[in-house]
Each structure stands twice: as C-alpha cells, then as structure tokens.
Specification:
Strand content: under 5%
Number of strands: 0
Order of helices and strands: HH
Shape: rod-shaped
Number of helices: 2
Structural class: mainly alpha
Helix content: over 70%
Distance between the termini: 128 Å
Radius of gyration: 39 Å
Length: about 120
C-alpha cells in the first residue's frame, strides 16, 4: 500500500511539474504574441504570470469598453432616427385627419346643396 501511495505521489509531482511547465510555455507564447502585435511595452520582461494576466485583462476590458461606447453611440443614432420617424408619422396622421375633416365638411355641404336643389326644382 505504501508503494502505491508513493507511486501516486510521484505521479502527482509529475503532473504538477507538467502544469507548471505548460503555464510557463503559455506565458512565453502570450509574451511573444503580445510583442508581435505591438504590445511589447505592455509586457514586462520579468513580469509574473499574474501581472501578464492583469495587463491582458485590462487590455480586453478597454477593448470591451470601446465596443460598448461605439454600440451606445449607434443606439443613440437609431433612437434619434426612430424619434424622427415617430414625429413624421404623427405629423402625417394629423394632416390626414385634417384632410378627412375637410372632405367630410365638403361632402356634407354638397349633400345639402343637392337636397336644396331637388327641393327648389320640384
């Protein structure tokens, strides 16, 4: 049983070693990609993984903020256009109501004239 536990301890140590080397490799890849993309001044040469994560997170938050600002401006533009459309519709509806009122008045006047003419000509 002790040999089994000792063997598992060795395997656990190997796994931890592999994870640490994998993290170091990921950090190196991230640093080289940052340098390729023009962010070499953002990644300190002696930076820890946590510092790099923080810098990358701040950069991604800045990009998200930029997108949110752009999206907000687009929504304001759409809202302005919708307000103009609603105002135009309200004006058109009011104008249509006015023309309908004039039409009904003219129609009523014509009916009265016809009735008056029919009475006079009898």
């Amino acid at each position: 049983m002790a040999a089994l536990v000792g063997g598992q301890g060795q395997q656990l140590g190997d796994i931890e070693s592999n994870v640490a080397s994998s993290n170091a490799m990921n950090l190196n890849v991230a640093c080289s990609q940052a340098e390729e993309n023009g962010f070499s001044d953002l990644v300190p040469a002696t930076g820890t993984e946590e510092e790099v994560r923080e810098i990358l997170q701040q950069t991604s938050l800045k990009l998200v903020d930029d997108h949110l600002v752009e999206f907000s401006e687009a929504l304001r533009t759409v809202a302005k256009a919708l307000r103009r459309v609603a105002e135009g519709k309200a004006i058109a509806t009011a104008e249509a109501a006015e023309w309908k009122r004039k039409y009904e008045l003219e129609r009523a006047r014509n009916l009265q004239l016809k009735m008056l003419a029919s009475i006079i000509w009898k």
